[in-house]
Queue: 2 jobs
Job 1
Amino acid sequence: STQSTWGHFLSVYFFSRPPSPAPRAMSDSTATAHTLASGPFCLINGPLTGADGLLLMYGPVAAYDRLADIPRRRDATENVAYDTVSMIPFSQIQERGFKAHNEGEKILTIRVDAAHNLTVQWLLDSLTATEIALALEFDTERQQYADIIQTIKDDMIGNGEGSSFVTPRKCTGQILEFDRNKALTIFSRLLTNEYGCYWKFCFFDGDTRYFIGASPERHLTVRGGLVEMNPISGTFRKKPANTWAAERDALLAFLRDEKEIDELWMVTDEELKMMAAMCPSGGDIHGPLLKEMGALIHTEYLLSGAHDGTDQVDLLRTSMFAPTVTGSPMGNACACVYSLERHTRSYYSSCILLMGREAGGAEFLDSSITIRTLEFRSTGHVSVRVGATLVKDSVPMEEVAECEAKIAAVLRS
């Protein structure tokens, strides 16, 4: 269903369909295992590749302080060209004047020297079989996190500081004898076991850090004069032991749950404010939709509109970052979670950003929110953060269980 010019929400849910990929030639023969054995690289699977495809990009890495520092090329090109792919830290939201902790994170950018279209099967065939044992531990106890949620409900939502908030729960762990083959094996398991993602990606900075994710949520796409965003909220936890009838009834109850409905409307309303700023002539709202993943089902809307010629990096800055990972209203939400969170979010809840040029030289960007994203160090240390959207009707222990389900979904994959 569609509503134009930022109109009213609709109340019928449909399962969303992934965008159709642009036709791209697949060329396994142009890339070798040597590419993945040395130097920085990024692998992406998503709408731009199709379900069975991979985009491999590699080149030198540089660190930058501001979005405007990311290098850009504006010359004409005969074919689609990918220029940079970047990991954006959450603290970049400071460019909007919002509060965020920073512990030295910078924008990490690969300047793309070459890009190849591969198949998922190519990657699977190039890996050496290996066993990986990963156990994660939360940095807060269940009751401690539930108490934080209750504080948000009582002191922040209850006192009118905002209508929704997101503060993550962090997990850490260790993989013994971690190396590139194990990193790519973890990524390959996400490729084969998880579905319903906007992007699955593996970004290696060429030194000590891997980012491996399977994110359900587009952040921002700017292409051909069109701006697109994708607010996602509401989380239904699948129960494989249920009968079909029991699971159907549970899903229908979830869709009728006022708390879940409020979650989606609140984050969508906040993203509509961003879209209205970026697309003053209005746009389209598609939804509500259902996005099914391996262990979870989410609710979502798809938002699109024509921008007025504003530079794409300025549009990206306007969109930082999704209310689904901060709250609403944005400014107050950032200030409130800043007071609760004692440490940086690192690269959680920001975005991985791809910029390039169409044939002829017109610029484009695409990006995915960095949730369900594992951060690995070369030592094998791993961290991952998960959160839940908190509203006035949230039940603390239910939100705790939602975070645990999201971690379980990562481990299951």
Job 2
Amino acid sequence: MVLLVQVEGLSGLSVLLVLQSKEEQAQITSQVTGQIAHRREGIKYRRNELFVDVLEYVNLLMSPQGQILSAHVAGKVVMKSYLSGMPECKFGINDKIQMDSKGKTTTEDPSRSGKASIAIDDCQFHQCVKLSKFESEHSISFIPPDGEFELMRYRTTKDISLPFRIIPLVREFERTKMEVKIVLKSTFKPSLLAQKIEVRIPTPLNTSGVQLICMKGKAKYKSSENAIVWKIKRMGGMKESQISAEIELLQTNDKKKWTRPPISMNFEVPFAPSGLKVRYLKVFESKINYSDQDVIKWVRYIGRSGLYETRC
């Protein structure tokens, strides 16, 4: 993209400035000098490898009745490139832009490993990505920097697979006692395993004591944080667990009713909640004698909680 800006000079003359994008400046430099700004010449490895991490943070606000009030996924694709020479990579994902541009229909079952295609609301690419090819061919083509770099960031708001559902039940008795019951349900495939699970249940400021019973994991009342913290090391898909708390309250002169903060949750799951899948990753290197088949490729999916809350 070239931006033309007209500036009024001191002498009254108009000056036309041509402003170019970083990508175009880098392309011109590359065409003139033959150099790639983000990668040096002469890189050699005994074993050519590519590591791809799809990292997603799922954010949720849910009503006590289970209605989704807001939800979105913020994701990024991080690569570690250990490739010899000056390779060109082509990277494909199952976003609707790419799938639809090829005019192909799919019979893939969405209930299996992932959705047939996902709708990405917006995305940003590393400077190594050739944006002109993405716009014309809808392919992510790039010469990777050596080592670790962030290839792209993206955001999606549609058809998110929420890994957990919290069902809260809170009862108050004459301002001196509360009973809280939380049911935690995992909604992903039974073959998968979530870990680092933590549920944080807020308690009133005038809490004097808490009695806890939990089916799985460990729970503790933290008075300094005004919260019950329930931790579970691991939990399989399509499982259910619960915690019950009896909360004793001190009598206060404050007539204002306690506004319950939402129950929050942390977790990590081995899949992308947006449904994003790496369709292909191809490597082309014409000067050095190795092919795409010689490159060892690793792909990992990690879904983590962002702000994951349920009102109670």
